[in-house]
Hints:
- This protein is mostly beta strands.
- It is 10% helix and 45% strand.
- The radius of gyration is 19 Å and the shape is globular.
Amino acid sequence: xxxILLGGIAPALAFDATxxxxxxxxxxxxxxxxxxxxxxxxxxxxxxxxxxxxTVKKGTDKMVALFLDPPSEKGRSTLRLGDNLWLYIPNVGKxxxxxxxxxxxxxxxxxxxxxxxDFSDEYTASAAGEEDGRYILELKARGPAVAYDRLKMWVDxxxxxPLTIEAYAASGLLIKTLHYNDIKDFGHGIVRxxxxxxxxxxxxxxxxxxxxxxxxxxxxADEVFxxxxxPRVGELRQ
Length: 238
């Protein structure tokens, strides 16, 4: 009877999407950290190209990634300050501006995937549902500079880490799907996925993989996140 009086309106979802997204960010990494990543691009014929990156981040808007391997890419580095990105190539010298939708490594990952800041700084969240031990969040970009207009995120209720993310353009087109798996204890209270696989209907047969290692909290001076410091990022490695 009550359902009839309410006209069949579904009950409000009983979770705070904003709070859960904030917790996702906290579980994925400390506010300031260093880490190592291997990126693997796999083509439809099975050919693979691999990159190794050393990455440091400070606060909500500063990140630098240094290429360690292959030798042809060694010494390149990418700086992100808020919505702005630069690529430093040793033989070129002067850093050049790049966009979040470009890719410095090719494959399915773009610069926004590789230089991703906290989700809660780039998106607002709303509750979209629950299923099989997962929260479903709808994320809307806070501004036009964010790479994806909308994300749909499935979050594991127990670990509070993302399991699947669908990335959409403003037109509603599905750009790619990100699959997080292999949850691992990295120490320092960091328990999160160690592997990210992405595919895209726009690149049929292609797949890109990101493997995470050596994530640990570490503080850095603001000087590290400047154009002048890009040739010296390797000095941070211990």
